[in-house]
Design a protein that fits this description.
106 residues; alpha+beta; 4-stranded mixed β-sheet; 4 strands
Length: 106
């Protein structure tokens, strides 16, 4: 029983830490929305898009922890990174240069 409580306490700390990071991103970008994507053994990726078009992500050790962190942070969660949600992302010269480099083998 003690092991279960210890695991739960660790998961709770992880949820709290991720929620603080999501909230800080949201505050810095005038609000935020997110989407949780399963990335296999590594866990889940929380993609964040700010109201100003800024974007970022955080990785959680599990999908369940990612869902709890998003819920605790109080941001809108999308089921998919669809066209309407993706259109809110603002890309700059760095991203365009990086995408072009990937296409030409750089």
């Amino acid at each position: 029983m003690a092991d279960t409580q210890q695991v739960d306490a660790k998961a709770e700390r992880t949820v709290a830490r991720l929620a603080r990071r999501i909230s800080a991103f949201s505050k810095a970008h005038g609000g935020a929305e997110g989407q949780v994507a399963y990335i296999g053994e590594r866990g889940a990726r929380i993609v964040l898009v700010g109201e100003d078009g800024g974007w970022g992500d955080v990785v959680a050790p599990s999908y369940a922890i990612a869902e709890q962190a998003v819920e605790r942070a109080g941001i809108t969660r999308h089921e998919a990174f669809d066209g309407e949600f993706a259109a809110k992302v603002t890309t700059g010269p760095y991203e365009w240069k990086r995408m072009a480099g990937i296409q030409v083998g750089g």
